[in-house]
Design goal:
This protein is an alpha/beta fold. Helix content is 41%, strand content 15%. A seven-stranded mixed sheet has the order 4-3-2-5-6-8-7, with helices on both faces. Strands 1-9 form a two-stranded antiparallel sheet.
């Protein structure tokens, strides 16, 4: 159990930065140090900013052709992930079919890859409606009821996250959802691929907390639907951030974990995938993690003086050091291949060589 010391931004200025503590610990790993030097050179070069600015613009302004490219790219990433981990082939009972839950599903490339491996799989998904800025769903099946997707904002599933009733004073009170999607079902394979979309139309008060709310929304629903022994695959960012370290540490207590970074797609970026196999959702550590995630979702949604959100709580430097002492060597072992891939990709870019 971590020791909570303060709300982020409230009397927390005396605490050592969690990020700086993690990076200080990781200095013992040569490839991490080399990657930091290279990233610093890229950040100092305006050409690097321009490169990623163009990529963001392409992601925000997609037509039908670009959506198909995005769908195929996601499928290729999942296929590469499977070739290294066999993660898309979860264990099932004899005569049973693979059941897949795809959170933030559209356009559906990950589920398409899962269907390619498991022809008889049943796919269920949740995705942001296109009317709110979400992607179109391109995945299709010729089999009736093989693929179904609910279009809703996953961050608004108040009942699923243990909040009933919703506080009367919240400005979006009527938009919260009391239904619990796919309640009573269990899934052997769960994808958590959501990230905050710049095209998502939402009230201004959510901007500062949306990434936090989306992460914990996916995690809570995933752990409350995954079958014992199932596999969870989640898109994450920045291995040297405290949020990632803490999350990986939590999963290591109730699953067999490995990390995957594509070599052909997004190699320049700090994104990667957590692959958690043989997951035990009834383990005490898993139950504790879900409770902590629910509390964090509540703070990000209803906390603060305005009742519309407050950033997550910090833990003490002593608790952080305890986790790093226990998990740090394993973290470096897991992260080393991902850092190597990003380093080699950045070495090929002019903006890391000419700053």
């Amino acid at each position: 159990m971590v020791t909570v010391v303060a709300e982020d931004g409230e009397n927390a200025s005396h605490l050592e930065s969690p990020g700086s503590l993690v990076r200080s610990f990781l200095q013992r790993e040569p490839i991490f140090c080399a990657l930091r030097v290279l990233k610093d050179k890229g950040w100092a070069n305006p050409d690097g900013d321009e490169h990623f600015k163009k990529q963001r613009s392409k992601a925000d302004n997609v037509g039908e052709h670009e959506q198909t490219i995005f769908y195929n790219m996601m499928r290729q990433i999942a296929e590469e992930l499977h070739s290294q981990s066999q993660a898309l082939s979860p264990s099932v009972m004899p005569g049973d079919v693979v059941r897949v839950l795809d959170l933030c599903m559209a356009p559906g490339g990950y589920s398409a890859a899962a269907l390619g491996v498991n022809r008889g799989a049943v796919i269920r998904g949740i995705s942001l409606p296109t009317s709110d800025g979400g992607h179109n769903l391109l995945l299709r099946s010729n089999r009736p009821a093989q693929v179904e997707c609910l279009f809703l904002d996953i961050t608004m599933l108040a009942s699923e996250f243990g909040v009933t009733p919703v506080p009367q004073e919240h400005p979006e009170r009527m938009r919260f959802i009391i239904d619990r999607p796919y309640f009573g079902l269990s899934f052997q394979l769960v994808f958590c691929d959501g990230q905050v979309l710049r095209t998502h139309t939402r009230p201004k008060h959510r901007d500062d907390f949306e990434a936090l709310r989306l992460t914990f929304s996916q995690l809570i629903l995933a752990l409350q639907r995954i079958a014992t022994g199932g596999t969870l695959i989640m898109l994450l960012h920045r291995l040297d951030s405290w949020d990632c370290v803490q999350l990986l540490y939590q999963f290591s207590q109730f699953a067999q974990i490995q990390l995957f970074k594509p070599q052909r797609k997004h190699a320049l970026r700090g994104s990667f995938y957590l692959v958690a196999k043989s997951l035990q959702p009834d383990h005490q550590a898993a139950q504790l993690a879900v409770q902590q995630w629910k509390e964090a979702w509540w703070r990000g949604t209803f906390g603060g003086t305005e009742g519309t959100g407050l950033t997550k709580q910090l833990i003490s430097p002593e608790a952080m050091r305890t986790i790093l002492d226990e998990f740090g060597d394993k973290l470096i072992e897991l992260a080393r291949p991902a850092w190597q891939i990003q380093f080699e990709a950045l070495m090929k870019q002019s903006f890391t060589q000419n700053s």
